[in-house]
Amino acid sequence: MFEYAPAPESRDVVDIKPAYGLFIDGEFVDGSGPSFKTVNPATEEQLAEIATASSDDVDRAVRAARKAFGVWSALPGSERAKYLFRIARIIQERARELAVLETLDNGKPIRESRDVDVPLVAAHFFYYAGWADKLGYAGFGPDPRPLGVAGQVIPWNFPLLMLAWKVAPALATGNTVVLKPAETTPLTALLFADICRQADLPPGVVNIVTGAGETGAAVVAHPDVNKVAFTGSTEVGRLIARAVAGTDKKLTLELGGKAANIVYEDAAIDQAVEGVVNGIFFNQGHVCCAGSRLLVQESIHDELLDALKRRLGTLRLGDPLDKNTDIGAINSAEQLARIRELSDSGEAEGARRWSPACELPERGYWFPPTVFTGVAQSHRVAREEIFGPVLSVLTFRTPAEAVEKANNTPYGLSAGIWTEKGSRILWTAERLRAGVVWANTFNRFDPASPFGGYKESGHGREGGLHGLEAYLDV
Amino acid sequence: MVSTLTTSLADVASSGATLRAFLHGLPGVDRVGADQRAAMLGTRSIKTTAKAHAIDLAISMVDLTTLEGADTPGKVRAMCAKAAHPGDGAPRVAAVCVYPDLVAVAAEALAGSGVKVASVATAFPSGRSSLEVKVSDTALAVAAGADEIDMVIDRGAFLSGDYTKVYEEIVAVKAACGDAHLKVILETGELSTYDNVRRASWLAMLAGADFIKTSTGKVSPAATPSVTLVMLEAVRDFRDRTGRQVGVKPAGGIRTTKDAIKNLVLVNEIAGDEWLTPEWFRLGASSVLNDLLMQRQKLATGRYAGPDYFTLD
């Protein structure tokens, strides 16, 4: 036996303060709401006390952003670019600190925060820094103008990466922001506030207000906010759409998904298995574009499932700070309860449940990688977003049936196609109603590529040239 | 893992057409995905006790190799001494690997040591000769005392689609091996695609290979992690299908302890720990041994000795 000895990343690289305030107008200030705790979901240990921003605090933040907007939007694009490049470089310099903090607060494996999240965050800032002085060539007229103050509300699954997706294009185009991180994962956003200060970003350009749903609602509803950007659940997205309706606020929503990962019989099987694993078990399945429905052609169902189960037997679940961990902790007790409830419904409705032999730690929030076979389209596990490490396996007989089943969902964020035949990739992709279609890969992200959904997965695009439009008055 | 085939594997080689149909019916390998998986496994962090275990395991899997035109009996004897006693209580290596004319020297030097003698054969490294020459090259090495034969496939025949020629040569060489183990070198650097690597792996296994080996060490790229991964998948699938286990030997380009440990991680997570013995996995290398010994000493003492404390043989 070749047992890997524990290889934990040192947590000494981060200095977590006992309590954090709000970041408004370039200063950390107290919040007027009751403070709340943020915990390490892998151990349930308290990491810090976090301030809650009341609607008055949000108002102060919006006023600071409004004031800064005058200065910031008047800067030449090349000057704004300098700040963004500086931020990107500081993120790279402090990459280890950011990765460890993200893993502590979120529960994701350090391998992912180190190799995926933080490098993509830096890449996003570099990418939009490059656009700041070239907006006249982006196809929106010779001198497209910013909108003003952007109110941004982000989720807990990729706390820092979602911040980057929101803040980088907003700043590059000359807007200022008031951002509310998720209640369970505020720490990297607060470290980002420190990075803004280190980069000498003018006060008020970035403001960070922490709190729960009410704080987010106050950001969205504030009358002096010109643009609302939200990533999160479809349920909250609906509330936001209602709150914004009838105002002239510009809105982008990036919501849930129930993506199909379609494996044709002529797929490269070993890589398809990897893609399925990466599609649903990456980040414990806390991914809006996760490939949570595996659609496999009937003729290779048994073969693929055998290979998949063997592969899942090698996944390493445990201490997220261990560099060899593949599956970390579920982000919160609330999310764990939701995953359990939906998984139980899968069994109750007649699907077969399977998990590899794996020991769950005693403390913290954990759920084993789980596969449901014999799933029908009518089962809840095939229709509802679980947002956890739970895969539903369905079968199809023909390409037309694959497309029909893949599209038969209220969502439309992403999809995957696995085949060695190029023409089949194109045929399928043309018919899938999903914002992102991956071919022979899954969960690959690049700042140059637009991302966003069809149907109830939201509207508007983030990333790439398309991502600029959401922050310009065009 | 192989898509449903009505013919049994025994009939696969009955004609060029069936052999071709079988090899081209194997699932493809997606290069991007295979590279990504190999790179991910390269990030495994093997520390402390796991590292100590891995270093000793890696040493015991080394096929210590010299394949130079300038090789002499003296050079081979020196290498054999190191192979049997690497020093400081380190385990002996698995085998030494030499040209056929030096097999007798190595066999004498290693008699009773437990270290096997392997010989390259079959017009190594290009394989460009007649079957007659290849078979007598093999017979020469076996007669001189080789326990293992490392043959090369005819890459020209493989790339031109003449799978039968490649198959029949392996069968003929296997017959000439007698009791000696046969390692079949695919020279993956010349096969170029991972689909070809998978097909050549199956072809060699169908023809009776005891081991499949990546490279001669004379062509670059040699044993890349991705190629080793594809071959490990092949032996795993072949055993699932036939019940027969075949070994894997990456060779060429493995120079550091890190490289060696990455290979062990690949074996562990792709084929499984049943392959994690010198019987089923070898590392074809020469300079890696000193790095393994140096890291071994560092782990035991906490300090690096200078390179002069490790013998150059």
From TrEMBL, chain A:
Could you list this entry's UniProt keywords, alphabetically sorted.
Oxidoreductase
Source domain of life is: Bacteria
Question: Which residues are annotated as active site?
Answer: 254
Q: Which Pfam families match?
A: Aldedh
Coiled-coil annotation: which residues? none
Q: Where is the Aldehyde dehydrogenase domain?
A: 28-473
An example of a GO molecular function for this protein is: oxidoreductase activity, acting on the aldehyde or oxo group of donors, NAD or NADP as acceptor
Question: Which family, according to UniProt?
Answer: Belongs to the aldehyde dehydrogenase family.
PANTHER family given in the database record: ALDEHYDE DEHYDROGENASE-RELATED
Which protein is depicted? Aldehyde dehydrogenase (NAD+)
Q: Which organism is it from?
A: Nonomuraea pusilla
From TrEMBL, chain B:
Protein EC: 4.1.2.4
Q: Which CDD domains match?
A: DeoC (cd00959)
Q: Which Pfam families does the UniProt entry name for this protein?
A: DeoC
Give any GO molecular function from the UniProt entry: deoxyribose-phosphate aldolase activity
Answer yes or no on keyword Cytoplasm.
no
Source species, domain of life: Bacteria
What are the protein's UniProt keywords?
Answer: Lyase, Schiff base
**Entry's transmembrane regions:** none
Entry's Gene Ontology BP terms: carbohydrate catabolic process; deoxyribonucleotide catabolic process
Q: What do the Gene Ontology cellular component annotations say?
A: cytoplasm
Regarding protein family, the annotation reads:
Belongs to the DeoC/FbaB aldolase family. DeoC type 2 subfamily.
Q: What is this protein called?
A: Deoxyribose-phosphate aldolase
